[in-house]
């Protein structure tokens, strides 16, 4: 098993002078990340100002806000935004649309990596779950923004009074906490110590063994639910695992804080824990296979002979719904990540995430067994790759069409994890596509209608 | 002077798909030819000459100005860099 990628995810917070909003955001985000047990070498946070004077000191108000929210204001000096800083950043965050647009105007290559705080929150809210390595989030969110621009509703303009500054401080503190919680599941780190009386199991995610330790007052309930919803991924323990994840469920905020500090994912209830665990397991496995497997954002089903059809689509565009429909008749391989090595497919029959009205956007996890999805054979071969195009105004009867090679590879590349780490990069993707006779686009409106074209898809396989 | 700057590229039927960092850029036939001519470095003027020879002179437009615009766009995408 290869080592996980070590490069940090670099966040650059930008405002105009780098003496007020940006340093407050920088220092409070650093604090929130530390509270969630995320080491500074995994996510690095710095700041700069579009018109900053290098070496300028932070304002007294900004220092007061940082300290009021538990951060450390010492030693901060402003920096001007340079092409080098921008080039090194994976994600740039600006407080207002005007400052975001100015960053993009001065540094066009950063246009798809710069967001306002409010925009970031809204885009993540639309996706609900983003089970992709953190480095890939900016481009995924930028693509979503291009399709559904976020209206400018909340701007963090420079404060002109203490009351405005206090409100800004509250807003930043809440925002950085949300971000840290969202990212904490996706950042790999060594779990330093196992909690006493922990319950454990081992999951297999396309060949990666991931040990799960349940802790906290809710550990028994959590452990039972993990075993239930991950039923098809449980493997015997006893060998060395490739990664470890501790998940804590406890109603006591102090217990949660202690768990986060030691690197655990920590939540007040089991549904939230299961929701974040799903992304955590997926991203750990993707990280471990970077450079070895072609890993696509795709659902997949298999025939009784083990021929696999992959259905490629961005997060939040209908893969899980399609998996439920097709998996009732064909072997359920995955609803999220299709892992391919040569022509071989590694199954990842993870729980399926289903949004329910009663949980306010948190998806509930369902076991493929509870949903009665078919079990595929053990040996799986890739036989067909299909680009999904689901639209509310799509054709009532699904339509299949061949996709020109380069255009298809361009779309496929955007749904491929760690493409730059594959030894032959685009050529590996191209070979994979050629091995299954090219890419097909499937346009449809309702998932249930896709069953009607399955004979045609299998027939061509 | 500009020079082609990508991590990997596929070429098929005269078009190029380039990988720059984590982003892919699908180039038109004209842009693909430009990037090919810039593989070892080229000036805008020499690129314009090569493209006019291949594709003909653009009607009612200055080829140098058109190629300059295209070069700027390719620089923004990182497919070219200043040499």
Short description:
The complex is a heterodimer of chains A (461) and B (83). Chain A is α/β, with parallel strands linked by helices and 461 residues long.
Coarse morphology of chain B: globular
The level 1 CATH classification of chain B is: Mainly Alpha
User: What is the CATH topology of chain B?
Assistant: Arc Repressor Mutant, subunit A
CATH homologous superfamily (4th level) name of the largest domain in chain A: Response regulator
Assigned CATH architecture of chain B = Orthogonal Bundle
Distance between the termini of chain B: 5 Å
Give the distance, in angstroms, between the N- and C-terminal Cα atoms of chain A: 31 Å
Q: Helix coverage percent of residues of chain A?
A: 25-40%
Q: Total strand count of chain A, please?
A: 20
Structure in words:
The complex is a heterodimer of chains A (461) and B (83). By secondary structure, chain A is an alpha/beta fold. Helices cover 35% and strands 23% of the residues of chain A. In chain A, strands 10, 11, 12, 13, 14, 17, 18, 19 and 20 form a nine-stranded mixed beta sheet that branches. Chain A starts with 8 loop residues before the first strand and ends with a helix. Chain B has three helices and five strands; from the N terminus they run ββββαααβ. The mean pLDDT of chain B is 94. Chain B has 83 residues and is of the alpha+beta class. Chain B has helices at residues 29-37, 44-55, 63-77, and strands at 2-4, 8-12, 15-20, 23-27, 80-82. Chain B has a three-stranded antiparallel beta sheet with strand order 2-3-4. In chain B, strands 1-5 form a two-stranded antiparallel sheet. Chain B has a single domain (2-82), classed as Arc Repressor Mutant, subunit A (Orthogonal Bundle). At the A-B interface, helix 12 and helix 13 of A face strand 2, strand 3 and strand 4 of B.
